[in-house]
Amino acid sequence: MTPKVARYLRDVAPATPCLVLDVDRVEENYRRLIAAMPLARIYYAVKANPAAPILERLTGLGSSFDAASLEEVEACLAAGARPEAISFGNTVKKESAIRTAYAAGVRMYAFDSEAELRKLARSAPGARVYCRILVGNDGAEWPLSRKFGCEIEMAKELMVQAGELGLDPYGISFHVGSQQTKTAAYEAAIGRVAMLFTDLKEAGVNLRMVNLGGGYPVRYRQEVPEIDDFGAAIMGAMAEHFGNALPEIVIEPGRFIVGDAGVVSSEVVLVSRKAKDDPVRWVYLDIGRFGGLAETEGEAIKYAFRTPHDGTADGPVTIAGPTCDSTDTLYEKSNYRLPLALDCGDRVELLATGAYVTSYASQSFNGFRPLAEHYV
Ligand SMILES: *Cc1c(COP(=O)(O)O)cnc(C)c1O
């Protein structure tokens, strides 16, 4: 938690549940990433946290943006981003959204299928397009598996076809999965992309860009490699496979830029046991899976907690949200322990919750309003 967030929580004590996010930390993370990968161009993955103060700060820093929907394209434009700085990165887009984005000046689009390529040829003529390939997601705590991307052989055919359809076959992208803890995932993917570059060159298509996607991790309960380790591994692999003919390098960080800038403040609603002598206490918070903690599904992302009683004797807990839905249980199997002194009404902070929380909150499931947001 940054000093600014701590001060805000102490001095203002905003109603819970809420996110308090330090926009200066967003800037620091952006600068750290540039320092780790000076040759890469940053396209912030807006879906991680689309709040205007974040988009505005990043626009001022010269960032570009990876938008998942027309609404995100419009949010970037409203924050002052130039349309040339926006990539429409979802491989699944309504044709009407493509048409509107194109009319607004957006000229870079992702695809991973022939049908999407044909939409782009019709509704974004001449635009730069990049094909997303399937790569391994091993090492990712929030894998994206097989939903996006196509096999290499198909990517090759589609990139040839892109040129024939009047589009600009610009590059290749991949995503190694979010909260990726292994630098080797990027190295392996870069090797595959380089082979595709060579094959396409032989087919007369000169690609100019590699999009390494996102995935750069944030520290939750466990240590993760430093961003400099990812930078060194990635630039090493690019040099190994491309030599002096380095293409333009694009990265699409989401979690890394905003994750550790934010803290969710919540209130303990109930502490109970299922039997008098049960050692495990159930701790119910005023935020849960439907309040924005979607990444606790399968206990994939394991947030760290801070309580007013830290440092005192603790015991095992199951942690759950406030709604009348049994899937609204956050952690049952991940060996969480919280202080025995924890009581109803205590404030509990969930650290590094600046990414993938506010935008996941449901409208009013069980009547609960989505969490408030404070950008400081
Ligand atoms: C979600 C996503 C990102 C951001 O991933 P992080 O793990 O948050 O860095 C980047 N690119 C694409 C295409 C995505 O879908």
From TrEMBL:
<dbReference type="InterPro" id="IPR000183">
    <property type="entry name" value="Orn/DAP/Arg_de-COase"/>
</dbReference>
<dbReference type="Pfam" id="PF02784">
    <property type="entry name" value="Orn_Arg_deC_N"/>
</dbReference>
<dbReference type="GO" id="GO:0005737">
    <property type="term" value="C:cytoplasm"/>
</dbReference>
<protein>
    <recommendedName>
        <fullName>ornithine decarboxylase</fullName>
        <ecNumber>4.1.1.17</ecNumber>
    </recommendedName>
</protein>
<dbReference type="GO" id="GO:0004586">
    <property type="term" value="F:ornithine decarboxylase activity"/>
</dbReference>
<dbReference type="InterPro" id="IPR002433">
    <property type="entry name" value="Orn_de-COase"/>
</dbReference>
<comment type="pathway">
    <text>Amine and polyamine biosynthesis; putrescine biosynthesis via L-ornithine pathway; putrescine from L-ornithine: step 1/1.</text>
</comment>
<dbReference type="InterPro" id="IPR009006">
    <property type="entry name" value="Ala_racemase/Decarboxylase_C"/>
</dbReference>
<keyword id="KW-0456">Lyase</keyword>
<dbReference type="InterPro" id="IPR022653">
    <property type="entry name" value="De-COase2_pyr-phos_BS"/>
</dbReference>
<keyword id="KW-0663">Pyridoxal phosphate</keyword>
<feature type="domain" description="Orn/DAP/Arg decarboxylase 2 N-terminal">
    <location>
        <begin position="24"/>
        <end position="259"/>
    </location>
</feature>
<comment type="similarity">
    <text>Belongs to the Orn/Lys/Arg decarboxylase class-II family.</text>
</comment>
<dbReference type="InterPro" id="IPR022657">
    <property type="entry name" value="De-COase2_CS"/>
</dbReference>
<dbReference type="InterPro" id="IPR029066">
    <property type="entry name" value="PLP-binding_barrel"/>
</dbReference>
<feature type="modified residue" description="N6-(pyridoxal phosphate)lysine">
    <location>
        <position position="47"/>
    </location>
</feature>
<dbReference type="GO" id="GO:0033387">
    <property type="term" value="P:putrescine biosynthetic process from arginine, via ornithine"/>
</dbReference>
<dbReference type="InterPro" id="IPR022644">
    <property type="entry name" value="De-COase2_N"/>
</dbReference>
<feature type="active site" description="Proton donor">
    <location>
        <position position="324"/>
    </location>
</feature>
